[in-house]
Amino acid sequence: MSRKPLKGQHHVSAITANAKENYRFYTEILGMRLVKKSINQDDPSVYHLFYADERGNPGTDLTFFEIPHAGKTYHGTNSITATSLRVPNDKALEYWLNRFEEYKVEHDEMTRHTGRAILPFRDFEGQRLVLVSDEHDNGVSGGSPWKDSPVPVEHAIYGLGPVTLTVSRPELTEKVLTSIMGFRETRQYAPLVEGQKPVRVFETGEGGSGAEIHLEERKDMERERPGRGSVHHVAFRVENEEDMKKWVEHINEIGLPNSGFVERYYFRSLYFREPNGILFELATDGPGFEGDEPFETLGEKLSLPPYFESQRPQIEANLKPLKTSK
């Protein structure tokens, strides 16, 4: 059965030890909208928070599992080492540089990186993030900025950009990206660390910032030990449920160990690990986040998929209250 190409990044999910401070940073400083306050469906005792554009369009979600006792991250290889967030143009990066100074956000200098202006920064737990300018981007479109954001719409974050994978055996990850997932290698650029090999860029679908994986080889590092401020997995966009079933069949035919079809209510998923151990997810573009609360009040209440609703009293009793309503 023919499958449609993956469309680009769907979401990136990371780890925080402090949901309250996480909510403050991503909404008040970065100006993203909390479009869903839910639970980790594999561990309903912890929050799963979804930040995105105005309605959580696919390709715009940066999500966090709250693990209160998560330890420090020890950076290393075989991990997702940078998550990019798209802004409209180079001028927006100047706005953000001033904003980071105002709010004392740890950041690097603006620079140019494989043809784009970027501004690397870290959140309060050391999460490795990069603002990337879309000034010269002609690939997959981003989302729609949240009009009630504290950040002006003309400078707002409105999607996920390139995701960097740092691995010890890049030839194994490359094979999964190209032979199994349909990515194509488009270019290389100078190594991020002197003495290392060039970083290779792979893209899918319409390509561009929102559909790129950057593959970095590092043999001089130990494996990353994840904790607060690390990334849990990256998800890629599948058109719909019908196409997802074709991807499940495809992955099974290859013999790659995987989760099989998973119902997440807000989307349908498939999980597997590439050979260096990084967790990949395929996720459908829909149904989206408005099936259980209206657009106007997204993220203001604790949302539970229907199959968890009978457990609501117990779940709410185990969660530390997090005020997200106006």
From TrEMBL:
What CDD domains does the database record attribute to this sequence?
A: PcpA_C_like
Q: Does the keyword Lyase apply?
A: yes
Q: Which gene encodes it?
A: gloA1
Ranges for domain VOC come to 8-134, 159-285
- What InterPro entries does this protein map onto? Extradiol_RC_dioxygenase (IPR052537), Glyas_Bleomycin-R_OHBP_Dase (IPR029068), Glyas_Fos-R_dOase_dom (IPR004360), VOC_core (IPR037523)
State the organism named in the record: Alkalihalophilus pseudofirmus (strain ATCC BAA-2126 / JCM 17055 / OF4)
Top-level taxon? Bacteria
Q: Name one GO molecular function term.
A: lyase activity
Protein name in UniProt: Lactoylglutathione lyase, Glyoxalase/bleomycin resistance protein GloA
Q: Which UniProt keywords apply?
A: Lyase
